[in-house]
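FORM 7B: Structural annotation worksheet

SECTION A. Query
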Amino acid sequence: MIGGVDVVVDHTINDEKYPTPDYKYKTFHIDAGPQHLDGDTALMYVRTRNVDDDYARAGRQQQVLRAVADKVLRADSLTTLLPKLPRLLMTIGNTVQTDVPMSLQLELATYLSKNSLHEVRQLVLDNRFGEETYSEQGAWILKPDRTLVRSAMANFFAPPTIASTTGAVAMKDNQWVRIEILNGTGEPGVAAQTRDVLQKEGYQVVSIGDADRSDYGRTIIINYGVPDDVVKQVGNDLKLEPNLSSLQGLNTSAPVDVRIVVGRDYLTHIQQ
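SECTION B. Predicted structure
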């Protein structure tokens, strides 16, 4: 109904025991990297659980919800979706249960349509916040460490200016932004030349290397949790077009804040 969503798959998934409706199995495979998911593929992506764990699955679910919100709230999508709104509301009403009043839902939707999604945060309470054990009934559970959970919640719900560095501060001091650059052009030396450009702007480039393939036409900036303004600033400093592809990464504990896959559209800048 919304034409699919774009996500960055953190690692290749090859689940040979993905369950089917007839109680059999099939193989679900998806490669690491930027992917466009249709509805069926997105559903398998968030449901698969045999190649990692429940924590990673929860992270994928949050990632897809974020991608759906990003797609729906884009200005160029609203005109297309308006004629489908009655059907969309009926579908949501039949599959989602909530005690949030409709008036508040509309208020939240209006707010998100007018404000950047960088204020939308994601958190998975995984085994960093408790002890994995078994219940008296034999079920596998995560027994929370309430001190750690309270601390995480306090930080999560704190105003953005307290919980994390704001976009305004980040632009004055780029050193805190950890950047990885991957060459997706097939041309030698591109990652190193891009690193030199960003280091002159004060960014911390922690690693460079080759991308998963060498035929990227457009440069992609993958955001692993920094404010959107930081991603925009990186794009500006690289002199990329304003409508460059910017995607949300999944791994919130990634060793980098921003990953840049350099495409062939950037070659004209470094060859000048």
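SECTION C. Observations
Residues 155 and 162 are 8 Å apart (CA to CA). Residues 54-72 form the longest helix (19 residues).

SECTION D. Sign-off
Analyst initials: ____
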